[in-house]
Amino acid sequence: MDPSSSSGQDPTSVLRNASFSHANGSAQADSPVTAADVLLGSYDPTKLHPLAAIEDKLDYLLLEDDKTSDLPGSGTAIPSRGWSDDLCYGTGTMYLSGLALGGVWGLREGARRPLAVSNARLRINSILNSVTRRGTFIGNSAGVLALVYNTINSTIDYARGEHDTLGSMAAGALTGALYKCTAGVRPALAAATLVSSFAGLWSYVKRSV
Questions:
Q1: 66 phi and psi, to 5 degrees?
Q2: Which biological process annotations from GO are given for this protein (predicted)?
Q3: Are residues 87 and 138 in the same domain?
Q4: Which of 22, 176, 179, 191 is deepest in the core (most CB within 10 A)?
Q5: What domain range is 118 assigned to?
């Protein structure tokens, strides 16, 4: 900008007509990207992304959440990633199934229970009481059985180095006997036989499907 040309002139007109230059000699800075440039396709919008210049230099974190258990015999119809999957999903499934089964039992019991006075409110109250009593009992019992069974079954599998029907039946027998151990020898043997039969049947079905 020439200082002598601004003498005796209006400062506004001087600033309006003045031209500036950078120290490196360029007449003006690079023009900024406008919305018209992006819409007309003259500018690649992907260059605006903060990771655009990384290209193939980005390292990825490889997760093995989908890796199933490599224990021999564990490849059944229901995939499992190990004892934690069996423990969590098995216990949750049995608990919810027990709640549903106990709820149906309580509904039937409450609907058939004789009342001193035939009243809709009393009948609804009887049904709700039966559902909450039977549902929680069956659900809690099934959840505890599944928790103990899956813990023992996983321990047996890793000790033997394989997963098969015999290990499941042994875990079921120990679970049933432990569940009824305080009731005497005969109830404990009956519970062991019952739970072992169910465990063997479940293991066979998983392998056959």
A1: -90, 0
A2: protein import into mitochondrial matrix
A3: yes
A4: 176
A5: 82-147
My answer on whether 168 and 112 are in the same domain is: no
DSSP-assigned letter for residue 171: H
Q: How far apart are CA 37 and CA 140, in angstroms?
A: 66
pLDDT in tens, 140-164: 999 999 999 988 988 888 888 777 8
Both 173 and 206 in a single domain?
yes
- 105 with 142, same domain: the answer is yes
Position 124 in a domain: yes
Percent above pLDDT 70 for the chain: 60
* Torsion sign, CA atoms 69, 70, 74, 79: positive
C-alpha to C-alpha distance for 16 and 138, rounded to whole angstroms: 88
Are 196 and 165 a contacting pair, CB within 8 Å? no
Contact predicate 102/136, CB 8 Å: yes
Same domain, 100 and 138: yes
Which segments of the chain does DSSP mark as H helices, in order?
11-17, 35-40, 83-112, 120-160, 165-179, 185-208
Q: What average pLDDT does the segment 15-25 reach?
A: 49
Cα distance between residue 171 and residue 203, in whole Å: 11
Can you give the pTM of this predicted structure? 0.59
Whether 203 maps to a domain, the answer reads yes
Q: How far apart are CA 83 and CA 10, in angstroms?
A: 86
